[in-house]
Amino acid sequence: MENIKKLITEIPNFPNKEGVSFKDISGVLSSDEFKRTIEIMGNLVDKPDYWVGIESRGFIFASALSIMFGGNLLLCRTGYNVIDKLVLINLKKLNNITTIKSVIDYE
Does 91 share its domain with 53? Predict the structure, then answer.
């Protein structure tokens, strides 16, 4: 686990907000530790029917988890970037409500 953590670069006060930091995971994604990361993540949970990936990073990890552990894949976007059939999911995050949209193929 420490090998994986060392590959993550932290950029403090980003984006221009005191106390907020950005975690750059490109070091993990471009290394041999990516497979190990997916194994660790997948072994933390019972195999779900769907691996749900929310936006950019979530797409990467949910796709890899689906391939490695089996199960369906559901990719969700925040905002209004989705066309076709939509599913709205409300997530409560602290005091905010975030709406996530996802394309569902009913065929």
Answer: yes
Residues in the chain: 107
pTM confidence score: 0.71
Q: Are 62 and 51 in contact (CB under 8 A)?
A: yes
Q: What is the pLDDT of residues 40-98, one digit of tens each?
A: 999 999 999 989 888 889 999 999 999 999 998 888 776 655 555 555 555 555 445 55
DSSP string, 68-83: HH--EEEEEEETT---
3-state secondary structure of 30: coil
User: Do 53 and 8 share a domain, yes or no?
Assistant: no
Angle of the 55-69 helix axis to the 33-43 helix axis, nearest 10: 80
CA angle 10-16-21, nearest 5°? 25
